[in-house]
Design brief:
With about 170 residues, this protein is α+β, with helices and mostly antiparallel strands. It contains four helices and five strands. A five-stranded antiparallel sheet has the order 4-3-2-1-5. β3 and β4 form a beta hairpin. The longest helix has about 35 residues.
């Protein structure tokens, strides 16, 4: 066989080797992160629950999720070990001090009320926005004056759903 026919197979085997190598590195990093957990550190489970590590065993972790709430999880269920600052910011809402770089980033509000205009000029301006309607159109057909020569049949509401009186 020539080298040209073997080249696609060699490239395929090389790509598979590189993909498995990077996946293995990620697994090793996750395993070392789980093994380096210490009691008192904040963690996030793969389900998204935040808790504090109370006790670390060989295959399990005892988590403190709140006052009087202790949960036993497998070590594989720990998604991330968080730094103290990040854990306090997420769970307790404690903001970073002024010396930290986190103060330069804009804060995201918890509700949308702070995003609306609260300027005194905007609040004092109670003028209505003109959408191109006139007052007669807003009042509807009953506000139009009825001429003396109109028929009594015009007093009935007009059918607008496609029905007709034809039989």
């Amino acid at each position: 066989m020539s080298l040209v026919t073997l080249l696609p197979f060699i490239v395929l085997i090389g790509a598979m080797f590189l993909m498995t190598r990077s996946a293995k590195k990620k697994q090793q990093a996750a395993a070392s992160m789980r093994n380096d957990m210490q009691p008192g550190s904040g963690v996030r489970t793969i389900g998204g629950m935040y808790a504090t590590v109370k006790e670390v065993n060989e295959d399990t972790v005892l988590l403190d999720a709140g006052p009087g709430v202790h949960l036993m999880f497998a070590k594989n269920a720990i998604g991330a070990v968080l730094s103290d600052d990040e854990y306090n910011r997420i769970v307790h809402g404690v903001e970073a001090t002024e010396d930290d770089e986190a103060t330069d980033t804009p804060l995201v509000p918890d509700d949308a009320s702070s995003l609306t205009a609260t300027d005194e000029t905007a609040a004092a301006d109670d003028s209505r926005v003109d959408l191109g309607k006139n007052e007669a159109a807003e009042a509807g057909p009953a506000a139009e004056p009825v001429a003396d020569g109109d028929k009594a049949a015009d007093a009935e509401p007009k059918k607008t759903d496609g029905e007709s009186d034809a039989k």
